[in-house]
Every structure is written in C-alpha cells, then in structure tokens.
Amino acid sequence: MKQQTVETPAALVDLGRVERNVARIAAYCRSHALAWRPHVKTHKSRRLARLELEAGAVGLTVATPFEAEVMSEVTDDLLLAYPPVGPEKLARLMALPDTVRLSVALDSVEALEAMAAAAAAKGRSVQVLVELDVGARRVGVATPGEAVSLAGKAADLPGVTYGGVAFYPGHIRQPESEQGAALSELSALVGRFREALERAGLPPRVVSGGSTPTAFGSHLVEALTEIRPGTCIFHDRDIVQMGVAGWNELAYTVVATVVSTAVPGRAAIDAGSKALSKESFRSGASGFGVLYDHPEVELVSLSEEHGVLDLGRTDWRPTVGDRVRVVPNHVCVSVNLQDRLLVQTHDGLEAWPIDARGRGLSPS
Amino acid sequence: MKQQTVETPAALVDLGRVERNVARIAAYCRSHALAWRPHVKTHKSRRLARLELEAGAVGLTVATPFEAEVMSEVTDDLLLAYPPVGPEKLARLMALPDTVRLSVALDSVEALEAMAAAAAAKGRSVQVLVELDVGARRVGVATPGEAVSLAGKAADLPGVTYGGVAFYPGHIRQPESEQGAALSELSALVGRFREALERAGLPPRVVSGGSTPTAFGSHLVEALTEIRPGTCIFHDRDIVQMGVAGWNELAYTVVATVVSTAVPGRAAIDAGSKALSKESFRSGASGFGVLYDHPEVELVSLSEEHGVLDLGRTDWRPTVGDRVRVVPNHVCVSVNLQDRLLVQTHDGLEAWPIDARGRGLSPS
After folding, report:
1. ipTM over 0.90
2. Mean local confidence (pLDDT), B210-226
3. Pairing of strands A252-260, A10-14
4. CB of B143 within 8 Å of any CB in chain A?
5. How far is CA B12 from CA A274, B16, B19, in A?
6. CB proximity under 8 Å: A 239-268 to B
C-alpha cells in the first residue's frame, strides 16, 4: 500500500511522531512521579494502547463500556472516567474478565448504589473515584461536602471500594504559557476537596486529573497522583494553537484529494464533516482545519463530503487531482469517523483497525 | 428488543413518520412533474432507499463511490452528485454492475477527461451533468461560458454523454416563508445557464437541483426537471426551525440516558459529539440539539461522550437514569456516527444496518 494511491479521504498516522509524543509524556510523568493513564478515546486502537503501556502507562482510561471491553485485552487496569449509569452499561462492565481491576468515576448516589449492587451480585470489587467539578460544568460534585458524603457511602457499600477523586480540567483552554493562574486556582480547589476528605477520615489515595492542554503543567497541581491525557498521542490544530505541541509533533492528518477548483478563490477537497467533523476551532481562530503543507490555507466551510479551502492568503494554486493533508481542529472526533488508520511505520504503510470505534453493537 | 432497554446512546427511527415524510415529498414531486431522486447520504440504508424507490423515486443520488456500490443493489439509476476525481474512485465506479445507468456531476476538464477515459476503456457510457455554482461557493462552474465549454467537451468525448446540469442551492437557508426572492433569483440564474447552453446547441435534458430547505419551493425554479433532497426523510432541528417540517414530522432522535445531575442548573446525558456531531445550529439559534419531549431544553455543550443540558428554562427536573430523546441539529452527520438504526416498525423495534456508512474499506 502506498500513500499516493490510497482512496481518499484517509487517516494517516506517523508512527515515528506517535512514538516521540508518547515518550515525551511518559518522561514528563516519570520526572514528576505522576502515574500516566492515557485516555484511549483519541485512538481507540489496541496497538496504540499497547505502545502507551510499553512506554510506561500504568493502565488505561476509557469513556465507554465497549472501550473497556476492547482494552481489557491489553491491560488489567482500567478506569472508566464516566458515570456507569443504566443496567446495559453495568452488565457490559460486569462481563469484563475477572482479572481486570476496574475503577469508575461517578458523582451520584444513584450511580454508586447501582454499581455497588451489580458488583456485589457478581462477587466483584470495583474501585470508586468521586468525580469533582473543577470548572468545566459538565459532571462532578460541586462542593467538598458532597464529595465527603459520596466517598463515605462508597467506603461503606459492599461491591465497591473508595479510592479517591477524579476531575477533568476541561475549562482550562488558554495557551500553555498563560495557564499559571488557572492551574494555581485548580490546585487550591482540589486541595480543599482533599482536606475535607482527609478531615472526614477519607483521604484520597488516587487524585486523577489532567487533560492534554494542561498535561505539561500537571506538576503545578499539588495533589495530583495521576493524569489521563488522550489527545497528546496525536495532537491537533487546537493543541498546537495552545502552544502545547509544535507543528512537527502532529502525528495525524487526513489525506484528501482536490476535487474542484471551479469557484474563484477557493478549492474543494473530498474531506468534509464525515471525515473531519464540523467542530469549531475551540481556541478562537476560524475554520475547520488547515493544510499541513500550507498552514495558511484554512477550511472555511465543510459539507458532508466537501471541504472548502480559502485560497485568499496563499500563493499555492491547487489542481484537480492534487493530494493534500488536513490537520483537523480536533483529532479525536476525526479518528472516530474513520474505517481504519493508515500507519506510516518504519516498514511501510499499514492499515490498523480502530478497534473500539462504535458501541460494540451488531449492525442488525 | 424494547426501546426502554437498549443500550444508549441509540438512534431511533419512527417508520410511520418516515413513510409519511416520503409520501409527502413524492406527492409534491408528482404534482409538479418533477423527478424525485433522493440523496441517500442521510440514511445510507438499502431498506430506506427501497422504500423511497417504491414511493416513486426515479433513482438515487449518492455522494461517494461506496454509496454507489451499496445502492446499486436496489436501483439501476444512480447519480453521483460529486466530482469523480482520482483513479481509486473511478475504478470503484467502473466496477459497478453493467446494468447501472451512471450519471456524474462534475465541473472540471480534468474530471471530465479522466471519467471519459475510464468509461471508454471499459466500453461503458456515463452521463455527465455540468455542475453549476448557484451561490453556495463550494463546487460548480461560475459562468454560462464555462458551462457551455464543459458541456461541449462532454458531448464530444467517447465514454460519456452530455445530459444537462446539476446544482445545489445550499446557500438558501432562510425560513421557507422568506425564500421567494432567493428562489426567483435562482430561477433566473439557472435560466441564464440554460439559455446559453441552448444557444450553443446543448440544451440540458436534465436540470437537477433541490435541497431539503428549498424542496417544497422547487416548482418556483422554472427550469428544474428533478430534485435531490435527502434530509426530508427524517428532518432535524434545523429543518423544523426553517419551517419546512413540523415537530411531528421528526422521524429520527437519539435516545440517551441522564448520567449526572450534579452540576447545578445542568444535567449530563450520554449522547455527545460521537453520537450527535458538534455541529452548530445553522439557522442562527444556539445549542447542539434539543430534547424531543422538552424542546425548551438545549444541549449547551458537547464533549465526546457527554451532552450537557441547560435546565435554566424548564420546570423538568431529570433524575440520573432517566431516558431522553435528542433532536440533533443536523441528522445526516448523526446517522453517520451510529452502528445501526433502531427502527420502530408496525411490528416492533428492529435493528437496520446503515449499509453505506464508511468508505467500503476493510479495517485492516
């Protein structure tokens, strides 16, 4: 298989860059005595997860029961960083191999009691982390009092053990160089939760946090014991814009073909929202992606199968049939749209499956 | 299978509404003597395509060679409304059964010559429609002169026949009641292209247009012979906002579970950007979807597996474990994220495959 003759759009992964990205975050965590538990939602690939584990990850983070199923083949240490709500999800979790040490993050009595009952019925033990809202306003208890209450219940119930706390600092999205104040505030906030839990006799053994935007500032958050960044295996336009990674650390692009140059000042490529996802640039700039080899060229609009390039700020003049590589705004949702990853390895181009894509449901 | 016990998020289709939606557009086209060639990109399902054909569709519209492959099992009359650029795409098209009458829309000499050469080499004949840009600034020739030039080349080349013109009025997105002026302008513009082609001895036999937002105004565009709306089989929040369909015509929702109510004023559900797509509301309103049964409740933010509901404008107070149905902003990109459709038929809930999802590539 050759990159020049694959049908487009196609997802291209540079394995050399993946290895360097993984080595960088692994080294950072080692040097700050942080456990590294990468989130697999970005790649959903067993082979890439194995590569992270071989580089020093203590286990894996997953967001869905199907990701847990798939990844239980490569590790025995899984954190479901997502409330396990509903009998269907609990049944899938309880069908994981007995060798799996499962942790779950949750923020409600309902989720806790159902998880405990399901685990007790199976004679299993699941570690519970109390999810904290540290500013993203998505999930997580808002106050130390609620955290103590839920942690106390987790400590008392059969089927579960209380392990500590988890949070996602998804609200911190400023450039890395300007995160200092936000990270100090985060550190103080997490500290208040930790102190309340300690006073209640429920000291957290695990304090699990970390996103890719804040990954390399994690040592500034005093209480942290582990981090869960996912995107940093590939990076994307958003992460580069924040100064967290450089252009030469981008390990994922979508190869596309120029299919039209008929509209003056524009060109259309065959990567649209069904290959990239029409996700606005979170760091404020416009467009739905840029070209890797012509970063001045933005995708100004996306239809389902068309990406429209603005040629207003470039001397590059594409011809119908030309191939380009697109850097997506958000890599995780682009990977999730692919049938496979084309991985440029040291031995050539290989097709790797995206094993945990979807829900694990048979199509019919 | 019961709706109450399927694992969420899950895509739910109301077959009764689908049948009524299909009957409505079929009746409209019959009453205005327009050929109806629905775009399958919305559902990618052979069974739903068959339902459209049985209701009177003259053939199907596809956007990718794989959609053409899949749909060649249910019709012999296919329009690829997309420039067929690149040897891999041409090879796939030329491998379609000999019984398929294939048309393609294109806007460049490069695409035309390559298509003609590929067809001639196979002893096939492909009908070419010249793609016009009528305002969307995506693909399509800009001037009648360019259209005449390309049509003339298509008429001369072996392997292809010249059939007429195609366009996509994707720029018309105002409410249906305010589209009059835009449709008059479109009619006049298409008329100028048609007259130029007639003067050059190249009268278009086919004038193919039509989107769901403009579908029921198609009779106001004088030259049209066929329309290609796709979304109108399901409709979505965007289409309802434009007044093109009513709430009780919405035939597709995503069933989700409330997984957290911990954050004051909000609730999180398990349908995020990997079930709905984080696509802004094109008609100006905010949010990434609304609840079918509580339309005052908007999804104010989406993460990959979390949808965050704003409870600020509702008396409804959800509990962890509750099920809700989400109306997505844009249905086509949500369908494309699903493993299957759960179709509420007259006989119960059935899982239907989304046959043409993906690129038709083996995962490894």
Report:
1. yes
2. 95
3. antiparallel
4. no
5. 20, 12, 15
6. 257-264, 266, 268
